[in-house]
C-alpha cells in the first residue's frame, strides 16, 4: 500500500515539475526589457541618463525628438543593462516626448517611455525641497533640534549621576 502511495506522490511531484518547466521558458521569453529615463522631467538643455535592462544584447540605442539618437553601451560584462546619456535640445518643445529604446540592431525589441520637458531651470541640490523655507521655519527647526539635544544631555547626566 505504501508503494502505491509513494508512486502517486512521485507522479504528482513529476507532473508539477513538468508544468513549472513548461511555463517558465514562455514567461522568460515574454518578459519585455525595462527602460528608464532619469530624471523624468527636465528643462531644455538638461542632461538625462538612459538605461534599459533585459535586452540580452551588447548594443542598443535610444531615440527621441527631445535629444536625437544615442548609442547605448553595456553597463557590465554580462550586458544585462545598457546605458547612455543625452542632453535635451535647448530649443526642445515643452511637453511629453517619447523615448524609444531599441535592443541590438534594427528590428530588435523596443520599449518606449515618456520624457517630460518643462519650462524653466531644473532644481538641483536637494531636489528643490528647501527652495521655499522661510527664516522663521529655519529658526523653529533649530530650536526643536537644540531642545532635543538638551533633553538628551539631561537624560545622560541624570543616568550617570544615579549610577555613580
What does this structure look like?
Helices cover 35% and strands 30% of the residues. It has an 8-stranded mixed sheet, with no helix packed on it. 18% of the residues are buried. Residues 10-30 and 125-129 have low confidence and may be disordered. The N and C termini lie far apart (75 Å). The chain has 2 helices and 8 strands; from the N terminus they run H-E-E-E-E-E-E-E-E-H. With 164 residues, it is an alpha+beta fold.
Topology:
Blueprint: H1 2-30, E1 34-38, E2 41-42, E3 47-53, E4 60-64, E5 68-74, E6 81-87, E7 95-103, E8 110-117, H2 135-163
Parallel strand pairs: 2-8
Antiparallel strand pairs: 1-3, 3-6, 4-5, 4-7, 5-6, 7-8
Features:
164 residues; 2 helices; single chain
Task: Give a brief rundown of this model.
With 164 residues, the chain is an alpha+beta fold. The chain contains 2 helices and 8 strands.
